[in-house]
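Standup notes
- HV: blocked on the assembly model, inputs below
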Amino acid sequence: MSTPRIATLADRTLDFVMRLVEAPINGFEWLFGRKRMPYLFLAPNLVLFGIFTFLPIAIAVGYAFTGGTELFVADRPFVGFDNFRQLLACEDYSSPGSCRESLFWTAIWNTLWFVGFNVAATLLVALVTALILNRAIAACGFFRAVFFYPVLLSPVVIGLIWKWFLDRNGLLNAFLQMLGVPPEIFLLDVGWSRFFVVVVSVWFHMGFYTLILLAGLQAIPKDLYEAAAIDAASPRRTLLRITLPLLGPNLLVVLILLMIRSVQIFDEAWVLTNGGGPGTANSFIVQYIYQMAFGSDLRLFGLASAASVLMGVVLLILTLIQLRLGRRMES
Amino acid sequence: MSTSLDPVAFLTRTRRPGRVGVTDILSWLWLIGGTLAVLIPVAWAGLSSLKPEAEITRFPPTLLPRAAVQKTVTGFENPLSLWKVTVDGETREMAMVRRIGLKAQMVDPNEPGKPVSIDVKDISPVQQLTAATENYTDPLTKFDFLTFLKNSVFVTFVATILTLIVNALAAFALSKYRFRGDKAIFVLIISTLMIPLTVVMVPAYLVVVGVGLVDNLWGIIIPTIASPTGVFLLRQYMLTIPDELIEAARVDAASEFRIFWRIILPLTAPALAVLAIFSILWRWNDFLWPLIVLSSRENFTLQVGLNAFQGEFSVQWHYILAMTFLSLLPVTIVFFFLQKYITTGIAGTGMK
């Protein structure tokens, strides 16, 4: 009895609000004509992009070439390439301790190692899973959903869940004790903590890449496999001559996407390792930028922006490669 | 048999109906192992979140949440914990009064007047299954958890509505009109995909300070409303809507906005649903940007609040896990019901 009445009421209210909104927009149309309407429709979007995306890019460049701790670019003294020089001044790039900004180079090396291991591991796990799911196995939908589930969780939640799993009193140590292995505080050990940052990252994201690769696999025409079966081609030959070449462009896109995302590792590693610990073993480049700009009272916006600009250039190059590949894939 | 164990051959074998080979077994092992790897850490956190404070740090841990059985004994103010005591090969239940070194003073609940001293190695706790609901109710009542929850719901809801409207308007202009600079504007919007937040976060913070939205929930809602992903997704969908519908409406003297509101928007519902799901997930899980913009506790979102909690209560895992589980619950429920839409939506766009 009451539900339809509420529905009509909501409908009427919405209608009333829309009439109020509509009036000035129709006025604009009456004044400037139909041809100008797309500009009005685009306006909110473009204004937001302008203020919160394009303006910051311009300011980023302004920050990178100024020093001091002032927030507004106009108040900051121009220092030329000093920020970049400070970041790049180094006697031996392979040992961060010899660099002027040793934290920056520690972060760069940590990030490079992470990207290498994470990209290889995620790609391998996602590819194997996609190939298995593509074999028309029973309950494929169920497994796809389970592997995809972590992708939707928040990085903070994932960091906390794993932190508890790896805790001194956690399940992994309980399991190891059953096997007679002494307990280990994994996240306080340099090697183990780095290993588990990669494990957690693979756990978090592999479902997403599996999904993309699976879509690519399912787009391969079935008659190719039928032809291969008629020719009695070995499974290895089918994989190397049909599946991988036809999946190639997808694999490349996934590879670049993975690299772009891996370079920006921050959230889950930050929570899992208590801000990059032990020491600076898991301090990555985004964390360096965050800590320089916001982490302490130093507020080194210039240094942070110079680092952002350097990272932005790397990401831009990767993205352009991805776009080029994507275009080639379409044609 | 030797080829079956070759990983390449194993992955590429086609399934033959009615016959289970080594390949199938290995496939199933991989999938079941993967499923366990995904579910065990989550389930472990969930089970642990129901353990009382005294039990959560017990090592080796029990799988299910358990707690010591308490009993009120006449003559003692507080309830005492029950223990199984083995004396002279005979086992009986006794309550512990106090523990001094390796000796425990125990009392039989039926004879409260006669405490006895017993070696601790002869006693073991009597436990029962329990659900420490106070782990969930305490954060809601004593701490700011409810404030965080409210903030997150507000941000997610408002930002999603605005994201849908602003991007649908832009997509409408870019798909149904031809005007000067339409291609350039589309490319410009899509090009912002190349600039991740991590690159511009320092200057973006300055802009937010400049417009006076720092430490304000609107400061995390507004900057990311305009979404290149959203424009792209909706525009591609609107391109498939026939222009004749719009022409017919114009003949009927409908205004352009009315065409958008009454014709285009309802027909774009499937794409809007996908964008809405994306937006809800982005907002609910967002961490770095709120961490930068929000500074006072009453403005924290759930993720920032959780991070703050784990810094403050570094050993109070029973609270941290309960709050973690609460913030994971809505996403899990949404996924359970909309799993198909989400996976096909993401596979279709290659974005998340």
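- HV (later): unblocked. The first strand of chain B starts at residue 66 and ends at 68. The two ends of chain B are 42 Å apart (CA to CA).
- Next: hand off to the docking folks.
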